[in-house]
Specification:
This protein has about 425 residues and is α/β, with parallel strands linked by helices. It has helices at about 5-15, 15-25, 70-80, 95-110, 120-130, 145-155, 170-180, 205-210, 235-240, 265-275, 280, 290-300, 305-325, 345-360, 390-414, and strands at about 40, 45-50, 50-55, 115, 135-140, 160-165, 185-190, 215-220, 245-250, 260-265, 330, 340-345, 360, 365, 375-380. The structure holds pyridoxal-5'-phosphate (PLP). Pyridoxal-5'-phosphate binds near residues 145 and 253.
């Protein structure tokens, strides 16, 4: 007799997403480059995968802080001081480093308080359903990050109504709010920057609508944290001039190169989030060594070193973008250090990724369903601790790869 768990696994394999992934792996066994294992990191941005040393252009440690001596020292010192973990849910007790990390984050961000979660996903899954009840509604951008949409699913299961509005479209946002009336409060949930395209939401328009419609802005600025705005505070203060009527979510795992996510808010709202976020109450916290690293990373963002790191990053992003455009390639994005080169066809997108890998450069080939069908892109993540030679090398390799691809396509067409 087969066990139910075996029959469950067989059933799962027959469902849409699993079949799609298996088909994908069978179709592109040599080029899909997913589920890779990194055997070594360094020096600098080099990594070793499958015995091959390549330059990593798939890393979201945008400022290169993952290798900053001060962060490494902070973690080493902290682990000796606190040990490896906090030991309980924060509802019972937090290490002092947690409170200090939240305080320095608030000083840097310019909010009264922040609350740290173990990831942005857990912030969204915990806070969004915690903020609304049956009398409230949530409206969200159609391209809002998956974790926002998952948080909304939990809220819906608890009886909150929701509607999606067209990407970055204030008129549609207003239409959806009208259609949902009557309600008590509305939550408008958007990304602070859309990482696949690099575009930003029209926050001023959204705020004007929010104020007219009893709504609060919930902005997941994960990709803006550390790299956009003054001292890397992200997109919100820059766009709105204040944090009034907003809840701002930031990432501690990308630009910060540590671990976690946070919500910036008033002190009284922080209290509400602590009481109402299930992921905070029932889950474990960020381990102490990472909290000390967060404190150090924030000090770096506030220091005179930050503009230097940011300037180097900008030089690299500008050079890569210009170089790609000079080759006739279509580059999407611009706001963040993610340079997405449009390829289109799925097989071609994977092929470009594989040819670059063979040439010594790891980039991410992103295809459907992460982007629209036939909308494949090569996603290049630039870090401040890349070198000019690595940027030039990638551009040369990209030029050769596109020539090879073109020759293959014309042979296929002939
Ligand atoms: C907008 C946004 N929110 C949330 C996440 C997930 O963050 P985490 O890895 O901290 O859960 C990402 C990751 O790319 C993101 O871009």
């Amino acid at each position: 007799m087969t066990l139910p768990i075996d029959r469950l696994e067989q059933t799962l394999r027959k469902t849409g997403v699993s079949r799609f992934m298996e088909h994908f792996e069978t179709l592109f066994p040599e080029t899909h480059l997913k589920d890779l294992v990194v055997d070594a990191v360094g020096p600098g941005r080099e990594i070793v995968i499958n015995g091959r040393r390549v330059v990593n252009f798939g890393c979201d440690s945008f400022l290169g802080l993952d290798q900053h001596p001060r962060l490494i020292e902070a973690i080493e010192t902290s682990v000796r001081h606190w040990g490896t973990h906090n030991g309980s849910s924060r509802i019972f007790a937090s290490v002092r480093a947690n409170v200090q990390a939240e305080e320095i984050l608030a000083q840097w961000l310019g909010t009264e308080a922040t609350l740290i979660y173990p990831s942005v996903t857990l912030a969204n899954l915990g806070a969004i359903p915690g903020l609304v009840g049956k009398a409230d509604v949530i409206v969200y951008d159609e391209f809002a990050h998956n974790s926002i949409q998952e948080g909304i699913r939990i809220a819906k299961a608890n009886g909150t109504r929701s509607a999606m509005f067209r990407h970055n479209d204030p008129a549609d946002l207003e239409r959806q709010l009208h259609a949902l009336r009557p309600y008590r409060f509305a939550l408008i949930a958007v990304d602070g920057v859309y990482s696949m395209t690099g575009d930003l939401p029209p926050l001023r328009d959204f705020q004007a609508i929010a104020l007219q419609h009893d709504a609060v802005l919930y902005i997941d600025d994960a990709h803006g944290t550390g790299v956009l705005g003054e001292h890397g505070r992200g997109t919100v203060l820059e766009s709105l001039g204040s944090y009034d009527n907003t809840l701002v979510v930031g990432s501690l795992s990308k630009g910060f190169s540590c671990l976690g996510g946070f919500i910036g808010c008033s002190r009284s709202f922080q209290r509400q989030l602590k009481i109402r976020s299930n992921s905070y109450i029932f889950g474990g916290p960020v381990p102490p060594p990472y909290l000390d690293a967060i404190i150090t990373a924030t000090e770096i963002l506030l220091s005179s070193e930050y503009p230097l790191l940011r300037a180097r990053l900008k030089t690299y992003v500008d050079r890569l973008t210009t170089g790609c455009r000079e080759m006739g390639l279509t580059v999407l994005g611009g706001a963040t250090p993610i340079v997405s080169v449009f390829i289109g066809d799925e097989a071609d997108t994977l092929q470009v990724g594989k040819l670059l890998f063979d040439a010594g450069y790891y980039v991410q080939s992103v295809t459907f369903p992460a982007v629209p069908y036939h909308g494949g892109v090569i996603r290049i993540q630039v870090n401040a601790n890349h070198t000019s030679a690595q940027i030039e090398g990638l551009l040369d390799a990209l030029g050769e790869t596109m020539t090879t691809l073109l020759a293959r396509s014309s042979r296929r067409a002939a």
